[in-house]
Design brief:
By secondary structure, the protein is α/β, with parallel strands linked by helices. It has a single domain (about 5-269), classed as 4-Layer Sandwich (Purple Acid Phosphatase, chain A, domain 2). About 25% of the residues lie in helices and about 20% in strands. The protein is built from 7 helices and 14 strands. Strand 5 (about 140) and strand 6 (about 145-150) form a beta hairpin. Helix 1 packs across helix 3 (about 80-90), helix 1 (about 10-25) runs parallel beside helix 5 (about 125-135) and helix 2 runs parallel beside helix 3. The longest helix has 14 residues, at about 80-90. About 45% of the residues are buried.
């Protein structure tokens, strides 16, 4: 696909430096305001540069906020181009484009597989990317009752305690690695290093945070809707093949009050 042009001919290192400085001033909890009409939530893109470009081309409008839910690298064929493109979009549109952190952005604190992006970089560049991507925000909320993040809800006292979550901590692992199961329990143990949670945990944390709908990605074997359609799982990458054949985004209004994921608009890109 070829190399993407950098901002004003800058080097990749300069792009990372500027992105890191911007992210240093962005909270871990993004609170979306009513200045726009819609929030567009984008699932894992995993090296699918075409998907990211389609999302930006279609939805980057003044009345919309774009929230990417993490996992921009590995699995797909264009990880380096994809993360560069998304960081450039963040620098160009810092109040409209938000990049949340997934487990594949946590290379600095937790190693995993597959990691073809990370293992294919020169060590110095891998370290530079790792320093920047672990600064990405962890969650976003809307005034209409949505919370969005990569995996599962963090067991912290209040919603705003998300701002204090440290990379590598238990709440960080819950957000970036957590899976859901349609089972009645609370904590269901780990499978392949991924903490799993059931309905009781979901309902307890959603009530604690005052949220009605969770939008997330991360778990390709999860059904699109769980827990009375209040937990919505989307993917926006072709990297999963037949397991997730459609690239899906979710549109949520920023006004009014949502009661379930059935009120979201799901579109393919």
């Amino acid at each position: 696909m070829g190399e993407l042009p950098l901002l004003k001919g800058e080097s990749e290192e300069e792009l990372l430096r500027k992105a890191g400085e911007l992210l240093d001033h962005e909270p871990k909890l993004i609170e979306l305001r009513r200045g726009a009409r819609w929030a567009v939530f984008v699932g894992d893109t995993h090296g699918d540069l075409e998907a990211s470009r389609r999302v930006i081309a279609r939805y980057l409008r003044s009345e919309m906020k774009l929230i990417f839910l993490g996992d921009y690298v590995d699995r797909g064929p264009h990880s380096r181009e994809n993360i560069r493109y998304l960081l450039e979009q963040k620098l160009r549109h810092p109040e409209q484009v938000f990049l949340l952190q997934g487990n594949h952005e946590g290379w600095k604190v937790a190693r995993f597989s597959p990691a073809d992006f990370w293992e294919g970089l020169p060590p110095e560049l891998a370290a530079a990317y790792a320093e920047v991507l672990v600064k990405l925000p962890l969650a976003a909320v809307t005034p209409s009752g949505v919370i969005a993040l990569h995996g599962a809800l963090p067991d912290v006292p209040t919603l705003h305690d998300i701002d204090e979550i440290e990379p590598g901590s238990a709440p960080w692992r819950q957000i970036t690695w957590g899976d859901w199961q349609e089972l009645p329990g609370r904590e269901l143990g780990e499978l392949w290093g991924r903490p799993r949670f059931g309905r009781r945990y979901f309902e307890e944390l959603m009530e604690r945070f005052g949220r009605r709908v969770l939008i997330r990605s991360h778990q390709p074997d999860a059904p699109p809707f769980l827990f009375d359609r209040r937990c919505v799982t989307i993917f926006t990458s072709s990297a999963y093949g037949g397991l997730r054949p459609e690239r899906t985004v979710a549109l949520a209004p920023l006004q009014g009050a949502l009661r379930s994921g059935s009120e979201l608009i799901l579109e393919t890109v």
